Amino acid sequence: MLAGSAFVVSAQSNAPSSPAPGQAPAANPPATATPGPQAPVQAKVAMCIGCHGIPGYQATFPEVHKVPMIAGQNAKYIAASLAAYAKGDRKHPTMRGIALPLGDKDIAEISEYYAGLAPVEPVPATVEAPADVKKLLDKGACASCHGANFSKPIDGTYPKIAGQHADYLYVALKSYQIQGKPYHGRSNAVMAGQVKQFTHAELKTLAQYLASLPSELRTVPQSRFR
Ligand code: HEC
Ligand code: HEC
């Protein structure tokens, strides 16, 4: 199990020796190849890189959108969201499959790793939003939890949202409106209470505005063959 990293397992099925850099291993995240708890963090994130380490990488479920940037995100929030996928509070099937086999130690290490992967300067407080957007932000008191720059939430388990991909923010916001479906939706009560007062058009406006702000989030391109 110690040597059972995603890389080693998929490489073995292709060729006995190491593949040349750039040669892709098996495309699907190998669900059975979860590294053991003692494996280095690089082995634990090997399967994340195929989606979160490729700038502009798009997911197609439940609609086409860019996968979220997680480098530079709060460690506690990364851990909380992985736990939410594992528990089923977030129903996204792919991320559920990925989060379920992770143990507490894996989640802690992976979260610290991504939180520290993109050291950037803290972004400044947001200047006044356009009137139509400000009305929506005030109605939801978004800054009271996510921070004046939308990057310094009042609790580490809350996300930085400034500069996150607009299409992802829109999908995420809509997902809090969906309850009781097997493969869709997020059940977080705080955000569910927030989004129910908005139409999809208003959520899109919020998403586009938030995405336009200076960000502490990044996609850090990485080789799978470290
Ligand atoms: C097949 C592509 C894919 C792989 C592989 C993948 N992810 Fe994801 N990840 C996604 C998508 C798509 C979402 C958005 C899911 C949603 O809508 O809730 C996501 C969401 C997340 C989130 C929530 C981000 C947020 O802002 O709420 C975290 C954290 C995360 N992934 C971490 C990881 C980690 C850690 C790994 C590796 C152990 C990983 N992912 C592997 C596609 C992937
Ligand atoms: C009372 C505190 C609170 C308020 C007010 C609040 N949020 Fe949140 N927000 C949270 C928490 C907590 C989460 C994480 C929920 C989860 O675990 O899925 C979150 C998650 C989000 C996400 C998902 C981010 C991601 O990476 O997936 C978005 C987008 C978001 N909030 C936007 C907003 C907007 C826009 C408003 C105002 C309309 C708002 N929030 C108001 C606490 C709050």
Structure in words:
One of its GO terms (molecular function) is heme binding. The protein is mainly α and about 230 residues long. It has a domain at about 125-215: Cytochrome Bc1 Complex, Chain D, domain 2 (Orthogonal Bundle). Helices cover about 45% and strands about 0% of the residues. It contains 10 helices and 2 strands, in the order ααββαααααααα. The protein has helices spanning about 5-15, 40-50, 75-85, 95-100, 105-115, 130-140, 140-145, 165-175, 190-195, 200-210, and strands spanning about 60, 65. Strands 1-2 form a two-stranded antiparallel ribbon. β1 and β2 (about 65) form a beta hairpin. The model is unreliable at about 1-30 (pLDDT under 50). It binds heme C (2 copies).
Topology:
Elements (H helix, E strand, L loop, with lengths): L5 H9 L26 H12 L5 E2 L5 E2 L8 H13 L5 H7 L4 H12 L15 H10 L1 H5 L19 H10 L13 H7 L4 H12 L15
Antiparallel strand pairs: 1-2
This protein binds heme C (HEC) (2 copies).
Helix coverage percent: 40-55%
Please identify, by name, the CATH architecture of the domain at 123-213: Orthogonal Bundle
What's the order of the H and E elements? HHEEHHHHHHHH
- As for the CATH topology of the domain at 123-213, it is Cytochrome Bc1 Complex, Chain D, domain 2
Largest sheet: 2 strands, antiparallel
Q: What is the rounded Rg?
A: 18 Å
Compute the separation of the termini in Å.
Answer: 19 Å
Number of helices: 10
What's the CATH C level of the domain at 123-213?
Mainly Alpha
- Find the count of extended strands (DSSP E, 2+ residues): 2
Q: DSSP strand (E) fraction?
A: under 5%
In round numbers, the mean pLDDT is: 87
- Uncertain spans: 1-32
Dominant shape: globular
Structural class: mainly alpha
